[in-house]
Task: structure prediction
Amino acid sequence: MHAGAMILDGHRVRFAFEDWKSFIAFKILRSRLKEITTRSFRAPGKELTENHTKWMQIFYRVFQRLKQIEEERAGSGPG
Result:
């Protein structure tokens, strides 16, 4: 964490965080998603475990919320 931001892939993706708790939560979610994708590539077609399914549901909720925020910001632009 550097100045409240996480930078991925050589400054291609940047996330700013309001507090350290959000940053830690994002790091944990990211590591769990990496686990899931690695497992899926190594064993394609194999069902996800119950724990992996729960992490995917959390990811989907976060992704939907981010999309909702983005749409709200786009709707409140100059007009």
Remarks:
- The longest strand covers residues 5-8.
- The radius of gyration is 16 Å.
- The chain has a mean pLDDT of 82.
- The helical segments are 20-42, 50-75.
